[in-house]
Amino acid sequence: MKINYYFTLFLTVIFLSTAHSQDLAEPDKLGVGLASSYPAYGLSAKYNFTETHAGQLIVGGASYGFGSSSFALSGRYLYNFEQGGDSFIYKPYLYGQLGYFTVKFDFLGQSESFNTISFGVGGGVEFTFSNFVDGLAFSGELGYVGGSFDDGIGTYAGFAYGAGIHYYFNL
Question: Per-residue DSSP letters for the chain?
Fold first, then answer.
């Protein structure tokens, strides 16, 4: 099952890295983990270029059973605000997102595939706790997402919410 593979990869990265700290906005810090905010979901990597500017890549896919599957690839620019807190450490951010999403259905010998380029904007808060697992952070976000499927079945736009978990270490 793909989720077990992702979870094993995530835990491997956590246990193999040794250099980390609770400063979520430190430059040259890489966070790896899982993120979900429609249509972006799956394995995630965040990289802090500076204390203010960061990038994120989210790659995922799923098999829903009954002959359907999907693939999602999204890139994000994140604008980080100043980190705050002592025991509850938080970092608010804004994001802009561009992605590719495809869904494939196989039913009774017929195959259909639907593709879209998606966009999104929003904001969120990444947080951690001091005296917890050093380098582990959680996030929650709200935003707006939209796109148009390439074969004329329609467009979509609306409210998006998401959550994530990342483990940060210094490069």
Answer: -HHHHHHHHHHHHHHH-----S-TT-TTEEEEEEEEETTEEEEEEEEESSSSEEEEEEEEEEEEETTEEEEEEEEEEEEE---B-SSEEEEEEEEEEEEEEEEEEEETTEEEEEEEEEEEEEEEEEEEETTSSTTEEEEEEEEEEEEEETTSS-EEEEEEEEEEEEEEEE-
Helix (H, G, I), strand (E, B) or coil at 51: coil
Residue in this structure with the two tokens 């976000």, named with its chain if needed: 141
Q: With the CA atoms of 59, 65, 66 and 71 taken in that order, what torsion angle do they form, in degrees rounded to the nearest 10?
A: 0
Digitized pLDDT (tens) for each residue of the chain, 171 residues in all:
455 555 555 545 444 443 344 677 788 999 999 999 877 789 999 999 999 999 999 999 876 667 788 899 999 999 999 988 888 999 999 999 999 988 888 878 888 888 889 999 999 999 999 888 888 999 999 999 998 887 767 788 899 999 999 999 888
Element (H, E) at 16: helix 2-16
Whole-angstrom Cα Rg for the chain: 17
Tell me how crowded residue 152 is: count the other CB atoms within 10 A of its CB: 7
Regarding pTM above 0.85, the answer is no
